[in-house]
Amino acid sequence: MNKYSALLLLPFTLALPVAAQQYPAKPVRIVVPFPPGGPTDIVARLMAPKMTEAMGQQIIIDNRGGAGGAIGTEQVAKSAPDGYVLIMGTIGGLAVAKSLNPKLGYDTLRDLAPISQSVSVTSVMVIHPSVPAKNVRELLALAKKGGGKLNYASSGNGTITHLAGELLKLMAKVDITHVPYKGGAPALVALVSGEVDMSYENTLIITPHIKSGKVKGLAVTSAKRSALLPELPTIAETLPGYSASGWYGLLAPAATPKPVIARLHTEAVKALRAPDVVEKLSGQGAEPVASTPEEFATFIRSETDKWAKLVKAANMRAD
Known about the structure:
This protein has helices at 3-22, 39-55, 70-77, 91-100, 108-111, 136-146, 160-172, 184-193, 203-212, 258-273, 275-282, 293-313, and strands at residues 28-32, 59-63, 85-90, 112-121, 123-127, 151-154, 177-180, 198-202, 216-220, 246-253, 286-288. By secondary structure, it is an alpha/beta fold. The protein folds into two domains: 27-121 and 246-313, Bordetella uptake gene, domain 1 (D-Maltodextrin-Binding Protein, domain 2); 132-237, Periplasmic binding protein-like II (D-Maltodextrin-Binding Protein, domain 2), CATH 3.40.190.
């Protein structure tokens, strides 16, 4: 390359840092791949005001539900890599969807750039009060006797609620029919109304309903008991080795400039560490994580490998 060619390329090499310094110059949209009112939506809406204040541009929450989070995730993966469209991704859309659907239109770590894992959340095995079971052991006995008559709601194929249900079926050797919905909020409505028998609901949305008696909590899905609901045992106390926890995290389209990713990471972490946000999340059973982009990428890889084994063993499919 001669010096004249180099001079011609100079404006393009300078453009990236300048653009990054000016970021953000307009509102930023965070896609939540589920309907409003669900746990992913709650986390995004807690972070958005803090990030809006710090970045000087409005952070807009855009709910785009469907396919266990895969539809919204794919839309972001195919968006312009300029930092103005992000995804509050979940275990389903980021780590499980590919195993369920080999023809999926995106690959998480090829098409998305991790910013930070936001939270880790425990789920609760809950039943409608009409179901005659007082604990996990009685529920499993009921399932074995019923031969598939019991059903459970999930927030969609490949979501943590789906994985938790299939893991239980596999480990306990029971048949419980899966009924997928388009998000945590619709699944919760189905459970409270008695449309379904049981679910594995996120502590972010289920705790008030347990305390009011609208649903009955039997156990938590995490390996350890929850500080929020210490009276509930773990499922592992009945089925040793059982563990299924959900998580959410912020990502941008791949090829988003690194300085933009760095700015987003800084503000996302600040939001997650804000005392009032920590208090609200902890009070609902969610643990703020605030990892680095590299740590989040490593975590996504490990979760993808872990749940791919369950998808294969349980012969799970995208219904």
